[in-house]
Amino acid sequence: MKGLLSVQGIKCGGIHCGIKKKNKDLAIIYSSVPCEWSGVWTKNRVKAASIIVNKKRLKDKVQAVVINSGIANSGTGLRGILDAKKMCKITASALNIPEFSVLCASTGKIGELLPMERIAKGIKRLAKKIDKGVSQDATSAIMTTDTKPKESEADLGDCKIAGIAKGAGMIAPNMATMLGFIVTDAQIERDVLRSMLKDVVNQTFNRITIDGDTSTNDMVVLLSNGLAGPPDLAKFKDGLFSVCADLARKIVEDAEGGTKIVRVVVSEAKSIKMAEKVASAVANSNLTKSALYGGSPPPGRILCACGYSGARINPKKIDIWLNQFLVVKDGAVIKFSESRVKSSLASSEIEIKIDLRRGKESVAFLTCDLSPEYVKINAE
Amino acid sequence: MKGLLSVQGIKCGGIHCGIKKKNKDLAIIYSSVPCEWSGVWTKNRVKAASIIVNKKRLKDKVQAVVINSGIANSGTGLRGILDAKKMCKITASALNIPEFSVLCASTGKIGELLPMERIAKGIKRLAKKIDKGVSQDATSAIMTTDTKPKESEADLGDCKIAGIAKGAGMIAPNMATMLGFIVTDAQIERDVLRSMLKDVVNQTFNRITIDGDTSTNDMVVLLSNGLAGPPDLAKFKDGLFSVCADLARKIVEDAEGGTKIVRVVVSEAKSIKMAEKVASAVANSNLTKSALYGGSPPPGRILCACGYSGARINPKKIDIWLNQFLVVKDGAVIKFSESRVKSSLASSEIEIKIDLRRGKESVAFLTCDLSPEYVKINAE
Questions:
Q1: Are A243 and A115 found together in one domain?
Q2: What is this structure's pTM?
Q3: How many CA atoms lie within 13 A of A276 on its CB side?
Q4: What CATH code is carried by the domain that includes residue B90?
Q5: Is B42 a catalytic site residue?
Q6: Of A107, A177, A209, A288, which residue is the catalytic one?
Q7: Do residues A141 and A273 share a domain?
Q8: Same domain? A60 vs A114
Q9: What would the mean pLDDT of B357-361 be, rounded to a whole number?
Q10: Residue A238 and residue A48: Cα distance in Å, rounded?
Q11: What distance in Å separates residue B174's CA from the closest CA in chain A?
């Protein structure tokens, strides 16, 4: 896997600069030429400094992203914003590009200030050896509680797409920072890039989290340096979707304290929005997810979550399957073989399928179970 | 404590009829004369049979409530509704009162049918000895994962109010059935009773749960038999508030797997609704509650929850106190004595105070911390 380096003109790397005690904590992604770009940002009203700073670059072309892990630089007031700007400025000067062509991102503990001296030294050191950098170092350097680096690539023939991501606390998705950085050598206009990224993120990263409930630092950024020329747009969008879906899935697979992947499919909804409401309520039900951890079939808990989802469902028309077993028919829990369903729940991936019989729309959400380990991790 | 029996004309009792393996599981509350009454119901679109049946009694006077624990009779379709009606009918005939003057309630596992034969026998047995019943038996008979019975009384001089409640899974308040039964000998008109109960429940039971996210069985019922004549209404409302607040607090104190009480106070909000949104987001933040379990100060997590609460807060104006210590000022986490705050978090009751500096309204929510024990209880 060449990771981000599979894309023409892209260089990247990651080092330990001293924000964390050990492990890499500083990454740079660099393009040899300026990029059209697009970002999707947290909807949290409390925004980290990096979000505030990046949003001022919307009219500029971008040539580099600097990312630190360990400290989120959020809840840090004006000082935090000045520090984020400084990170960009130091990176720009080290790479010899304009200040406004650098984006920044942070992830880690909220409410602490960045150790700017160490970061400044780190950026200079990293920039010097960026030509020899490898993608895996960048991927490792953006990790926090992640246990595995997350990369994905797509070779579309006429162009390439590659991405890296971090994010592990999926059980409380609303609080876990999710970062994604995607690069391509396809040449795409800014407006097309924006609408495409928004669309794809809505169907991938946003279906592993709950609508609007995001951390203060969340962002997904897509850079297009155009070195491969204009692509087949439909094929490109499919490729972007597959990279984002792959990264999103890897985030869930690495969820804090999760032991199983849970796929929640809601079908025959009147609208996508209705399907999303139901899927997200079920995917976020602590009681359902505790039961799945314990291997007990929770048909009633799922039915209950459908009811409080806020969607205008008809309770008498809900059918629910656990894996291949029908457990709720016409809104009532039916008799099912407890032992067969239980043994199917022992697998590492579980599907909850909910049929609303109200229309033709469907969505799939990915989540995981809730284990005592989750609480232990977050109590520290 | 005479419990419900402190109110003139009220009789009650509880027995084991065989829904649970052991422990009491069937209760009756009876008034010697018909009562004006009011109820507050779950907002879940999937409603248990008991809710559907009770809502048909709105125009009738009520003289008894029959309650079972162990099985929620929810997600049980038409058969469930017929069973709930049957419970009322058998109770009516055993007490020699009209069928439409009996309310019913159930709590326990969703998706299972009631063992009607055992319940029928139980009701007859219980009705026969209702004259000698004690309040504590009724209170015990409505418990599920509760570890303590929950009762409260208020003697207002001109009348009395008494109530019992159950409900333990407060960490996922949206799924835990909450039942409350309150009786009074005050004589109050139906409309007054209704608006008063709604008001008081909104400020007590609904501030230990999230708005709209309720189980399929939740209800709070207030019966007024009038034997003490008309009360001082203002004093009565205060008394009702104190009984409901006391019961609500007892529910939180007995929360599944909770080890500490957490009081979330939001002040200087532009509206009550804004204050409620912020308080409920913080009170339901798994990350905040895991940190409190572990005894770590979570200023950033609290700030983040304020941001995704959906309330139109100004992030730059938020101040946050943990117990008496200021930890966030003007939306930024400030330096505080980690050791002093930590040692204050070791107490059994913690206060999070959030000042929004947007107006004059304030609310207080009660919740508890999130322990690994919670997941273990709900995995079974």
A1: yes
A2: 0.86
A3: 14
A4: 3.60.70.12
A5: no
A6: A177
A7: no
A8: yes
A9: 96
A10: 31
A11: 8
